[in-house]
Write a structure and sequence with these properties.
Blueprint (H helix, E strand, L loop, with lengths): L2 H5 L1 H4 L20 E17 L6 E16 L3 E14 L7 E15 L3 E13 L17 E17 L2 E14 L19 E13 L7 E13 L5 E14 L4 E16 L27 E20 L2 E10 L2 E13 L2 E12 L1 H11 L5 E4 L6 E6 L4 E3 L11 E15 L2 E15 L13 E16 L2 E13 L8 E15 L2 E14 L5 E13 L1
Antiparallel strand pairs: 1-2, 1-25, 2-3, 3-4, 4-5, 5-6, 6-7, 7-8, 8-9, 9-10, 10-11, 11-12, 12-13, 13-14, 14-15, 15-19, 16-17, 17-18, 19-20, 20-21, 21-22, 22-23, 23-24, 24-25
Length: 540
Amino acid sequence: MSKSKFMNLIRQGAVLVPLAMVAVQPAQAQSRNVEVTPYLEVQQVLVADLKNGSEVLTYTTVAAGLETSIQTRQAEAQVNVRYERRFFYEDDIGDDDILSGLARGSVQVVPNVLALEAGGIATRSRIDLRGESPTNTVGNIDNVTQVYSIYAGPSLSTNIGALDVNANYRVGYTKVESEDTGILPPGQLPIDIFDDSVSHSASASVGMQPRDLPFGWSVSAGYEREDAGQLDQRFEGKYARADVTVPVTPTVALVGGVGYEDIEISERDALRDVNGDPVVDSDGRLVTDEASPRLLSYDQDGLIWDAGVLWRPSRRTSLEARIGRRYGSTTYAGSLGYQPNENTSLNVSVYDTVSGFGNLLNDNLDSLGTSFTSNRNPLSGELNGCAFGQTSSLCINDALQSAASSSFRARGVNAQLAYSYNGWNTSLATGYSRRRFIASQLGGLANVDGLVDQNYYANLSIGRQIDARSSFDTNVYANLLDSGFAGAPNVLALGANAAYYRQIIPGLNGTAAVGLDSFQQDGFDSELTASALLGLQYEF
């Protein structure tokens, strides 16, 4: 059972509560609300290295983008996508193409019964936690790669008499381009880089709310599979469980469940040379030995259980906390949703899951609602890593801390706070993630089996509408990375940027931005860069 399924059991019917406790959202507007804003943009950017000789780099960016928001009776969607071409003036730096974006949508095939869900993301990821941590991705950069992930599938939610029936299916695809990890600390070997994968996820549940009975109940089952191209890795998991909800007061209920789960992860060995060393291709990835038998790297099956409490004092507040047994050890999971008014939202999630790189990205996308705001770095044009909605938020820092090919057990906590009032818009995201990698001791990835990496992050964004024609925003971030490799130093990344936007004439906007970015890696020279930008954007 994936992270998104575990945290969304309430929506799927596996955790049931009295009607008085249901977190009712405000009624959806019945009027048609469609906003589509395509734009073209031209920017001139200057980047100065303040630590290593004060080298100055300038380049021109030409970009095209689309921002779309759709809210109708039959469809909901949010799209923020941007393609840019960078033209450099230095002979040793080639021109660059960057595609970034985030999209979520839902179409009601049969109103309030059957919907088609879809989502996608295009962004950049670090490759190796031990290497450089560039955030201003300009020029001949190392240790950064392009990532694409999409998914789509139907979702069923209906009633048969007093029974609540839910079913979901999702197919997804994730691709990571190959890039150079750059210089690693002495004695450190490169990790194997994720290539691509196809994932499937299906679940179904049936149950009753605690109306006719003094308790609610449900039974559910699910199946997940991810087939990765790298070393023919395969993740396969299935579960069946029963859950009950026992109301204690009008706002508090005890929840619990028990079931059976079976997860297997396997791979093939890497092709070996005459010395027995794994063969690496031109992209820096291990070459699969197609004749190798399948090597089992993880096999966990047996009884699973969890128990906890659900508190819903109002339709705008929901808290759930659980403790249980999964993956052969104690697990903790929970969620907090707090929306005291239309201007403020707080979302916190505690998770524990076994997954692969592609499945984790799809899970994160699936958990994001169809109405959100996503900020971009004004200097690089890339997504800041978090999207904020009134009822759900998303930060992909846990998935993008590195693009290692192995499956892993991921545990952590994410918190997002969004606030807007009187022209001010503020968002804060913090989190911690811990991954323990899983690989066969007999295969080409034996060196990462049992390795634990950790990521701590914080992002703060503050914006203000100055008047009808101008606004500004600022962004501050911090990120501490611990790769877990013996002898490898931690990497600390810090930075801040600010931008001023001004409407020149209707449809034509000007931008001025400055930024300061740095990362520190023990044993290496730290880097500090300053950036400045002037740009024009025309909205159609």
